[in-house]
Structure formats: C-alpha cells, structure tokens
Automatic annotation (TrEMBL):
Stated name of the protein: 3-hydroxy-3-methylglutaryl coenzyme A reductase
Organism, scientific name: Cucurbita moschata
Highest rank taxon of the organism: Eukaryota
Pathway: Metabolic intermediate biosynthesis; (R)-mevalonate biosynthesis; (R)-mevalonate from acetyl-CoA: step 3/3
Regions crossing the membrane: 53-72, 93-112
GO biological process, one term: coenzyme A metabolic process
Length: 595
C-alpha cells in the first residue's frame, strides 16, 4: 500500500509561501471553488441557531404596540397637564427608540418586498440581471432531485468539470435550465405559488416539469416512475386537471367484437385487473355465436335538484304546487331552454322535507353528459321564480336529490342519464361449449347470488355480478367521469331458461348510465381515440345526442357480456383457477423490491 501511495502521489515542488496558492488557483478554477466551499463550510461564530422567525415577529409586534400604547398614554397626560410635548423623560426616549427600531424591522420584513413586487419587472420574478451571466454546471445526478442526496444544483461562475456524487442509479426525469432552476427555488421557498406556474410561464409542459421537480425537493420523494413527457398538458388546462406533475399509465385492452343491434363493436377497456378483458371477450364470443344482443333506450334525461328553504312548510308547498301545475310547465321550460341549444326540460319532480323544498329537474343534454348544462338551466328557472317567490332562500344548486355520484334509490327508480335494457338468448350448445356450464345451473346461481344474495345484503342497484368492473373500464378508456360509476353501475341481471329449458335468456337493466361524447375527458387524445374506435367520437350533427345514446347501449351490451362470462365461471368453478392464472403476477416480488 505504501508503494501504491508513492506511485500515486505527485512529485513535490518548491514554491514560496506566497507563490504556490497563486499559481495553483490560476491554473485550476475548480480548486478555487472548492477552497471557497471549504471556507464557507467552516464553523463560524455567527452559525449559532437563530431565533425562530415567528418568535422574532411576535417579539417585535409586541414591542411595537406596547410602546405605541405607552407613548399615546403619555401624550394624553401631557395634553391634560399642559406639558410641552417636546419635553421628554428618559423612559419616553427609550420608548421612542424602541418604536423606531420595531417599525423599521416590521417595515423591512413585511413592507419593502411588497412595494418592490409592485414595481419589479415581470421577468425579475425568476431572475435578476446579475444572474444572466451565471452558467449552470451540468447536472450529473443519476436521480430526480426528490430521491437524491444533494438537491441543490451548484451554480458556478464558469463551466468546469463536474464533481462525482454518490446517488441512486435512477435516470433523471428532465433537465433544468438556469431559469427553470431559479423558478424551482422560488416555488420551494414559497415565493411563487405552484398553481400559478401555467399563467406565469405560458407553457403548460414546462410548468408541469417545474412543479414536479419542486414537489420532489419539498417532499424528498422521487417521482421517477411517473411519466412526464409525451402528454399534451395544454389540453387539460382549465378543464380536466389542475397542477399536473405527470400522468398515470393504464393499459387498454379490447373485448369483442360485440354484436349489438346488428352491428359489431370492438370495446376498449382500461383496467389493471387481470381476467376482466378476457372474461368480457368470452361473453362477447358467446353473444356473437348466438346471433347478437339487442338493446332498448328507455329514457334519456340528466337531473339536477336544488334545495330551497322557506319560512314555513305551507309556503314551500305553494311553490311545489306552482311548479307541478301543467299550465306553468311551458313557461318554466321556455326559461330553462334558453340556457343551451341542446338542453330541453322534460319534467320537474318536487319533494318536501319540512319547510325545505327539493325540485328535481330532468332534461335532455344532447351528446354531452350534461351536468353543467342542466345546472345553467336550473339557475335560470330559480332566478325566474325569485320574482313570484321573493322569500325563497336557495340553499344550494344541488341538494343531493339529483343524485350525483352517490348510490340513491331515486336514480334506481326514476333513472338518471341513459336508462337502457339489453338482452340476448344464448343457445344451449354455446352455453356448454363456450361457457362450459349448463342453463339450469346459471339460472339457479343468478337467483341465489344476484337476486337473493343481493337482497340479503341490502343492495341498492347492485343486483348483478360485477357490472361496475366493465362500466369503470369503459369509462376510463373513453374519458367519462369515473366517479359516476357509482350510479352508472346500477344494474339488475336476469336469467331465465327458454325454449323448453334448452336455451338461456339473459338481460341487464341499467337505469342510470351517465355518459357523453363531448366535453370533459372525451376531448383528450387517448380517450378520443377510444371513442373513435366505437364510432361515437364527438357530437352527432345529423341527430344530436345519438352518439351518447349509442355509447350507453354499448356499455350495457358490454356489461351483458361480462355478466354472462363471470356467472358461467362461477357456475363451473373456474373463477379461482382463472384468476390464479391471469390475475397473479409471475414476477419475483423479492427481486423486484430489491431492484
């Protein structure tokens, strides 16, 4: 080892005490920076722990108001005793000095930066003129800042060779420019709100990248597994998602073709549950081999139910009678319909709870899901009613009698969105060869599981095997509101032996499928592509609303296929076996966790 040290050590040279540092520093700028860093890291007398800022502020606030109160009291006493104000005592001189000191501190802490922010040029929010000549050394970290040991990117006066650091071997998600680095520091320090980056920068992708890096530095957690690039962040600004830092990848599988009403559809399903697409695909095959399924749209109406309060229950009942009077409906419909070209009021149903009135408005909404459309129309009607009922107190535009994104009997009974029934007759041969079970076993299982079992559980709209699985997968793939899966998955599955017990009649009745083909997430590229695959992209010009209605029937038809396949798997005892085969990872979890 001594020999190795002798070989690796440079030969000694003789320099005078004042020559050696001058020459070495002139030849090696990096050494200058390292020596400065060493001096900076040295322990100094001023490095003692400072008083917490909130305690300092509290002390100066207390001092300021105390001396102000003291001086005002002394001033009042001098006026009463006719003592000249310029004659001051020692205590008053101390109080005046304390007043001036505390005033200067508070002004410097709270006032100066506020005044400067008013007159500061917009580009100075991120950088100053002196910063423009600074070069950023190449970032050699192998990990996003959130997972790194040292989150600060050194800023040097000139480009120099990088100093290696010990970090985790994870690729950097993006490169920061000098200006971006300053913005990140501003966000981390709390000087720049994260939500304002899009408006300040005018670049949504850049704002997302800066917000992401700031989040990693603040939390100390890495987001290396969350994709950032390859997404159009401008497309979600102001309508889909606020303060984005990336996007989640969900695989999309295709079930089908689904033969429904004489047409074939390839159904996109976004899910991370193994067996789901494969099972639905098997159901589609059974439907295809049996001649296809048929669907009927029973109702198409989105709802909104505001809640109003009156001084008495009698007064609330008077408005109820007024609204439900057929002679007044045309007037209210005319007021409602002014809010949109497609929104058309169909009915108003009222309910009273004491002196509170709930009015459930139902209207058609074209190809949009229609929540915003119906809300605008309801607001118009409420403004109109305020003239004849000035004592009406509108508590909320939504009183949960709608009912949105919650399981509710009113949706199960009255319907909300699209109400659809879909049916198919599966031949006995298909039941045996494709579904691997028999007709009588399926009928009995459906009665004991979907009907009796759900009743025993007190289910509300849940008289099915797994309708929400299919609904959620299609909703995510086509840009629907996933939260509306709650009421959209209301479904009752019926199975009956027909043709002397040889064949199986299967139907699903879904009273509240809430879908649209315009607005919200439907305009995003991936979701729009899935809608295009189904032939329902955007609004229909020939028959407004027909695309959304068709999408609802496709959802119901897919649920029919999913119900048929899962019930067959349970009947044949294949459920656990298929999930063990397709829904369990073959990856070595121990190795994965250590990698």
């Amino acid at each position: 080892m001594d020999a190795h040290r002798r070989r690796s050590s440079p030969p000694a040279k003789n320099f005078s005490a004042d020559q050696q540092p001058v020459k070495s520093m002139a030849k090696n700028p990096l050494k200058v920076k390292m020596m400065e860093q060493r001096d900076h890291d040295a322990v100094k007398a001023s490095d003692v722990l400072p008083l917490p800022i909130y305690l300092t502020n509290a002390a100066f606030f207390t001092l300021f108001f105390s001396v102000v109160y003291f001086l005002l009291t002394r001033w009042r006493e001098k006026i009463r005793s006719s003592t000249p104000l310029h004659v001051v005592t020692l205590s008053e001189m101390v109080a005046i000095s304390a007043f001036v000191a505390s005033f200067i501190y508070l002004l410097g802490f709270f006032g100066i930066d506020f005044v400067q922010s008013i007159f500061r040029p917009s580009h100075d929010v991120w950088t100053s003129e002196d910063d423009e000549v600074v070069l950023v050394r190449e970032d050699t970290r192998k990990v996003p800042c959130g997972a790194g040991i040292d989150c600060a990117m050194p800023i040097l006066a000139s480009p120099v060779p990088s100093v290696p650091k010990v970090v985790d071997p994870v690729p950097v998600s993006f490169d920061l420019t000098e200006e971006d680095e300053e913005i990140v520091k501003s966000v981390v320090a709390g000087a720049t709100p994260s939500y304002s980056l899009e408006s300040k920068l005018g670049d949504c992708a850049r704002a997302a990248a800066i917000r992401r890096e700031s989040l990693q530095r603040i939390t100390g957690k890495s987001l290396s597994g969350l994709p950032l690039e390859g997404f159009d962040y401008a497309s979600i600004l102001g309508q889909c998602c606020e303060m984005p830092v990336g996007y989640v990848q969900v695989p999309v599988g295709i079930a089908g073709p689904l033969l429904l009403d004489g047409k074939e559809y390839s159904v996109p399903m976004a899910t991370t549950e193994g067996c789901l697409v494969a099972s639905t695909n098997r159901g589609c095959k059974a439907i295809m081999m049996s001649g296809g399924a048929n669907s009927v749209l029973l109702r198409d109406a989105m709802t909104r139910a505001p809640v109003m309060r009156f001084a008495t229950a009698k007064r609330a009942a008077e408005l109820k009678f007024y609204v439900e009077e057929p002679a007044n409906f045309d007037t209210l419909a005319s007021v409602f319909n002014k809010s949109s070209r497609f929104g058309r009021l169909q009915s108003i149903k009222c309910a009273i709870a004491g002196k509170n009135l709930y009015m459930r408005f139902s209207c058609s909404t074209g190809d949009a899901m229609g929540m915003n459309m119906v809300s605008k129309g309801v607001q118009n009607v409420l403004d109109f009613l305020q003239t004849d009922f000035p004592d009406m107190d509108v508590i909320g535009i939504s009183g949960n009698y709608c009912s949105d994104k919650k399981p509710a009997a009113v949706n199960w009974i009255e319907g909300r969105g699209k109400s659809v029934v879909c049916e198919v007759t599966i031949t006995g041969d298909v039941v045996k060869k494709v579904l691997k079970t028999d007709v009588q076993a399926l009928v009995e299982l459906n009665m004991l599981k979907n009907l009796t079992g759900s009743a025993m559980a007190g289910a509300l709209g849940g008289f099915n095997a797994h309708a929400s699985n299919i609904v959620s997968a299609i909703f995510i793939a086509t840009g629907q509101d996933p939260a509306q899966n709650v009421e959209s998955s209301h479904c009752i599955t019926m199975m009956e032996a027909v043709n002397n017990g040889q064949d199986l009649h299967v139907s699903v009745t879904m009273p509240s499928i809430e879908v649209g083909t315009v607005g919200g997430g439907t305009q995003l590229a991936s979701q729009s592509a899935c809608l295009n695959l189904l032939g329902v992209k955007g609004a229909s010009r020939e028959a407004p609303g027909s695309n959304a209605r068709l999408l609802a029937t496709i959802v119901a038809g897919s649920v029919l296929a999913g119900e048929l396949s899962l019930m067959s798997a349970i009947s044949a005892g294949h459920l656990v076996r298929s999930h063990m085969k397709y829904n369990r990872s073959s990856r070595d979890v121990t190795r994965a966790s250590s990698s």
